[in-house]
Write a structure and sequence with these properties.
There is one protein chain. This protein is about 40% helix and about 10% strand. The chain is an alpha/beta fold. The chain has one domain: Alpha-Beta Barrel (TIM Barrel), CATH 3.20.20.410. The strands form 2 sheets. A 5-stranded parallel beta sheet has the order 1-2-3-4-5, with helices on one face. It has a 3-stranded parallel beta sheet with strand order 6-7-8.
């Protein structure tokens, strides 16, 4: 995400060499979704450059590759899993969670496979699972079984809150594209671990996005008061203003919880001058 085209030169300095882009992003936000790892396992040397650009307390939530979760559906995955874990090893403590995003067809009947997969994972990492099958949201028994499996493994259930997005029909190309691709499931706001993770999708209009995240302000504030360490990712259909919106969400939580540490000051997009 730190190379998002619409941020370059507008929110982040441009041009920047690849080895400096994440460093600039980290002055805006202290966490990032590692979504590119879904499409290809990066070279270990590439991950080393990521680690070098951020502090040890920066958070990567890194998605497992598609061959593991979607193509092989968590079975027969020893080789790609081993390659992935070796590649991300340089992140060290920055690997806040490994993100197991499952396809919409991964149903309650597949939970035995998920339980077996989670049991085999190394304890050096924390894990977060995102499900999209409606039964996990509509059928209490399926939800309880999933929670039991995740709790036993010490893994988190990642909600992807699209409720605000689907409240009314799309009005732009970016919204129309997201309308066909994003899951339409109810909001879920229960934490299973001390590291809850929230993914929120708003609309093109900032006021609609801010209105939609209001329920999360109380939830996240309560988690912090309970001693949990939540991570919240703010999205819009085109993500053009995701950085400023993420900081606004953080500021809204901080207004309720002043002891929450502030985010860093972003780097200027233009060099500083005397005049």
């Amino acid at each position: 995400m730190w190379t998002h085209p619409s941020w370059q030169g507008r929110l982040l300095p441009h041009p920047l060499p690849p080895g400096e882009r994440l460093r600039s992003y980290a002055t805006w936000c202290n966490a990032v979704e590692g979504n590119t790892t879904f499409y290809a396992t990066p070279a270990k040397s590439t991950v080393e450059t990521w680690a070098e650009q951020v502090s040890p307390d920066f958070r990567f939530v890194v998605k497992l590759p598609k061959p593991i979760t979607h193509e092989r559906r968590l079975t027969g995955i020893d080789d790609p899993l081993r390659a992935f874990l070796e590649a991300i090893e340089p992140l060290g403590p920055r690997a806040h969670a490994l993100w197991v995003q499952l396809p919409g067809s991964f149903a309650p009947t597949d939970l035995g496979t998920l339980a077996g997969f989670l049991r085999r994972l190394p304890s050096a990492y924390s894990y977060a699972v995102e499900v999209r099958h409606r039964a996990f949201f509509d059928d209490p028994r399926s939800a309880q079984l999933l929670e039991r499996i995740l709790t036993t493994a010490g893994a988190e259930w990642v909600p992807f809150d699209t409720t605000a997005f689907f409240q009314s029909p799309p009005t732009s190309d970016a919204e129309r594209d997201a309308w066909t691709k994003k899951p339409r499931v109810p909001r879920r706001s229960s934490a299973l671990t001390d590291r809850p993770i929230v993914r929120y999708l708003g609309r093109d209009a900032t006021d609609r996005t801010v209105e939609g995240w209001q329920p999360w302000l109380d939830t996240v504030t309560d988690w912090l008061r309970e001693g949990r360490s939540p991570t919240v990712f703010i999205h819009t259909p085109d993500n053009a203003d995701a950085l400023t919106l993420a900081r606004r969400f953080h500021a809204d939580v901080r207004s309720r919880l002043p002891e929450l540490a502030p985010l860093p000051d972003p780097l200027p997009t233009e060099p500083l001058t005397l005049f």
